[in-house]
Inverse folding.
C-alpha cells in the first residue's frame, strides 16, 4: 500500500463509477493513522484525474462516511483505514451510491482497470467539507434529549476515528463519560486499547461503578460492551439481545436475524424459542448486509462486533449499535448483566495459526481428513469452521459442540493437522 497504488486505485474506481453513469462527488474519510493523509491525497488525485470531484470529510468513522454518501447522494465513498489492525497497516474501503459496500463483481471490475491507470501525478489536498458535526447531531437524535442523564459510561475509542464522535454524542444525551483511547497520535491506534484490547475498559467499569463500558475499533464500525460487572459482551450477545427485544415488540421484519458462520449455535436456539429465525452467511459484514437486503431484514452482524441496524445505517456502526442497546436497557429498566442472560452459548473454542502460505484447504489432505473425522463425531451436535483470515496471514479454527472437553480435544486435533501440513509459520 503506497501513494502510487492509491492514485491508480482512485482513478480506477472513479472511471468504473463513471462507466456506470454515476457522476457526482466522491466523499473521502480516514482514521487518524499516520499514513492516512498522504494516501488520501493520492486517492483524491487519482479521482480528479478520472474526472470526478473528491471531497475530504476529514477524520471520520467509517459508518459516518457511508451515511454521508447516502444522505448527500454521492457517487462514491472512500475510507482510508485498516480498521482494527496496527498503525503500520492501512487499507482502502469503498462505498457506492446509497452507502453500500461494493460487491465482488464491483471490486473485480475496478481491479481490471488498474493496468490502464495513468502515471501518478501531483497529489494536491482535496477540497474539504468536515462532516463530524453533522454525524454527531444525527446520532444524538436516536435517543430522546437527556435520555442518559445519570448514566456513567466508560468509552474506549481505540485512539481512532471515534475519538471526536462517540464521547460527544453520549455527553450530549446527558451521560457522564469516562473516556479512554481518545488521544490519537498517528501511531497508537488500536495499541493496547479498543475492541481488540478491552481489558482496561473492563477494569475501569468496575473501578468507577459505571453502568457499562463500550469499545470501538480504529474506524468505529465495531462495538464490544462490558456490563456493570466488567463482563464482556461480543457481537453474538448484542445481536441476540437486540433481536429478542425486537421480537417481543413485533419489530423484527420477517422475524429474521442475519449472522455469519462464526456465530454461536446458542444464538439460533434463543431466537427460535421466541419464534424467530436465524440466517447464516459467509464471514464478512458485506455478506451479512447483502443477505439482509435480500431478505428485507433490518438486523444482522458478526461475532466480532459488526452490528448492522439496517433501518438506521447502510453499514455496521458501533455508535448506533451502542445507542440501540442503551435504548433497550432504558425501556426494560434492567442492567446489561441481566439482559445478557437471555441466552446460553454452546461450548466453543477457537484458534488462529499464523501461516507462511495459503493453499486451498481442499489441497491439504491431513487437515481435510481431520475435519471429516471431527464432523462425523459431532454430527448434528456441533460444527467446525476452518478458514483463512481475510486481512492477516492466519488460518482460523473454530469448534463448537455439546461439551467443552470434546470441543477442546477437537480443536487440538485440527491444530495438529495444520502443523502436520507444514504451513504453520512457527514450524
Amino acid at each position: 500500500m503506497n501513494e502510487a497504488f492509491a492514485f491508480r486505485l482512485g482513478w480506477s474506481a472513479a472511471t468504473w463509477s463513471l462507466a456506470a453513469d454515476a457522476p457526482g462527488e466522491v466523499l473521502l474519510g480516514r482514521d487518524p493513522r499516520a499514513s492516512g493523509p498522504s494516501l488520501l491525497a493520492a486517492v483524491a488525485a487519482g479521482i480528479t484525474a478520472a474526472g470526478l470531484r473528491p471531497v475530504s470529510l476529514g477524520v471520520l468513522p467509517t459508518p459516518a462516511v457511508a451515511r454521508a454518501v447516502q444522505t448527500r447522494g454521492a457517487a462514491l465513498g472512500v475510507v482510508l483505514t485498516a480498521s482494527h489492525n496496527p498503525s503500520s497497516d492501512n487499507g482502502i474501503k469503498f462505498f457506492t451510491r446509497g452507502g453500500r459496500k461494493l460487491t465482488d463483481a464491483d471490486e473485480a471490475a475496478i481491479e481490471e482497470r488498474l493496468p490502464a491507470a495513468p502515471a501518478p501525478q501531483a497529489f494536491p489536498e482535496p477540497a474539504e467539507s468536515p462532516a463530524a458535526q453533522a454525524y454527531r447531531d444525527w446520532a444524538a437524535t436516536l435517543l430522546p434529549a437527556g435520555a442518559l442523564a445519570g448514566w456513567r459510561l466508560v468509552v474506549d475509542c481505540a485512539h481512532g476515528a471515534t475519538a471526536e464522535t462517540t464521547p460527544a454524542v453520549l455527553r450530549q444525551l446527558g451521560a457522564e463519560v469516562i473516556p479512554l483511547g481518545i488521544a490519537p497520535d498517528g501511531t497508537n491506534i488500536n495499541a493496547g486499547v479498543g475492541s481488540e484490547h478491552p481489558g482496561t475498559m473492563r477494569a475501569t467499569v468496575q473501578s468507577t461503578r459505571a453502568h457499562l463500558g463500550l469499545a470501538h475499533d480504529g474506524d468505529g464500525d465495531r462495538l464490544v460492551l462490558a456490563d456493570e460487572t466488567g463482563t464482556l459482551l461480543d457481537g453474538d450477545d448484542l445481536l441476540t439481545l437486540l433481536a429478542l427485544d425486537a421480537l417481543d415488540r413485533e419489530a423484527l421484519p420477517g422475524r429474521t436475524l442475519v449472522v455469519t458462520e462464526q456465530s454461536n449455535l446458542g444464538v439460533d436456539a434463543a431466537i427460535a424459542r421466541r419464534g424467530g429465525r436465524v440466517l447464516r452467511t459467509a464471514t464478512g459484514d458485506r455478506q451479512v448486509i447483502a443477505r439482509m437486503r435480500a431478505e428485507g431484514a433490518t438486523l444482522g452482524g458478526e461475532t466480532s462486533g459488526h452490528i448492522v441496524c439496517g433501518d438506521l445505517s447502510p453499514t455496521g456502526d458501533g455508535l448506533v449499535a451502542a445507542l440501540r442497546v442503551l435504548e433497550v436497557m432504558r425501556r426494560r429498566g434492567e442492567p446489561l448483566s441481566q439482559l445478557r442472560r437471555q441466552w446460553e452459548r454452546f461450548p466453543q473454542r477457537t484458534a488462529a495459526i499464523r501461516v507462511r502460505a495459503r493453499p486451498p484447504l481442499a489441497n491439504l489432505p491431513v487437515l481435510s481428513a481431520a475435519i471429516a473425522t471431527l464432523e462425523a463425531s459431532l454430527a448434528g451436535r456441533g460444527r467446525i469452521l476452518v478458514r483463512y483470515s481475510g486481512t492477516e496471514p492466519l488460518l482460523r479454527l473454530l469448534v463448537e459442540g455439546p461439551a467443552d472437553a470434546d470441543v477442546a480435544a477437537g480443536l487440538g486435533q485440527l491444530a495438529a493437522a495444520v502443523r502436520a501440513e507444514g504451513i504453520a509459520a512457527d514450524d
Summary: The chain has 14 helices and 18 strands. Residues 3-130 form a domain with the Alpha-D-Glucose-1,6-Bisphosphate; Chain A, domain 3 fold (CATH 3.40.120.10). The chain has a mean pLDDT of 95.
